[in-house]
Specification:
alpha/beta; five-stranded mixed beta sheet; 137 residues
């Protein structure tokens, strides 16, 4: 009897290690990425001696020409969007004990009159404390 050797199948390639690596890279980039909305316009921050990074729950932008920007809205609509975002925030958190923090990214060339006129409107929207973001030296 003459038996022929059976044809050997090529073993299937194991893709599990590659899937694991891709999954770990995905998790790494999700954790390392800073998920923030884009700025509505470019702002050159004024320079000051900075104590530390400003932490805020909301960020409002003030351009050189006095335009406001918040979450894709500009002008008076930005203030309305900010007030709506604060109301939604306060619906899920206690704002009496820990009021939401607002950071104002005002351009260095923005007129002081526009900044002074903005502060009462922000106070009326429920922000008692506003932090002006500056570029540290």
């Amino acid at each position: 009897m003459n038996f022929s050797t059976p044809l050997r199948r090529r073993p299937a390639e194991n893709l599990l290690p590659m899937i694991n690596v891709v999954f770990l890279l995905l998790i790494f980039f999700l954790i390392a990425a800073k998920l923030a909305p884009p700025e509505p316009f470019a702002v050159t921050l004024p320079e000051a001696l900075a104590e530390g990074a400003a932490e805020a729950d909301f960020t409002l932008h003030l351009a050189t020409d006095g335009r406001l920007g918040f979450a894709g809205a500009e002008g008076a609509a930005a203030l309305q969007a900010l007030a709506a975002a604060r109301a939604a925030y306060c619906a899920g958190a206690d704002c009496t004990d820990a009021p939401p923090r607002l950071a104002l990214r005002a351009d260095a060339g923005a007129p002081a009159a526009a900044l002074a006129a903005l502060l009462p409107a922000l106070a009326g929207a429920g922000f008692g404390k506003v932090t002006l973001v500056t570029a540290g030296r």
